[in-house]
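Input structure tokens:
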């Protein structure tokens, strides 16, 4: 069973789980979007850090969700990866190719 299948099944039967998941879902989506963009660009955390002038540990913290980025940091990362992050009206983050 994949993680997505587990979450779908658990959400369907457990309202408390569904509410808790909805509360953290935007942060989880950001983490996935950031990691996916970095991998799609074919760069390591260290290489992304060099491109952005950040430390590798800062990139790792962003990818772990421990520290949400400021918008200027997000823009810097997007430029370094050749992509754009899009935030919709509900606060969900996705990727758009440039």
């Amino acid at each position: 069973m994949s993680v997505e299948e587990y979450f779908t099944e658990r959400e369907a039967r457990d309202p408390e789980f569904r509410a808790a998941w909805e509360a953290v879902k935007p942060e989880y989506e950001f983490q996935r979007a950031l990691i996916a963009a970095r991998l799609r660009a074919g760069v390591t955390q260290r290489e992304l850090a060099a491109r952005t002038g950040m430390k590798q540990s800062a990139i790792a913290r962003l990818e772990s969700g421990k520290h949400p980025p400021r918008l200027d940091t997000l823009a810097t990362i997007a430029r370094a990866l050749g992509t754009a992050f899009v935030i919709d009206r509900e606060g969900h983050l996705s990727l758009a190719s440039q």
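The two ends are 34 Å apart (CA to CA). The first strand starts at residue 83 and ends at 87.
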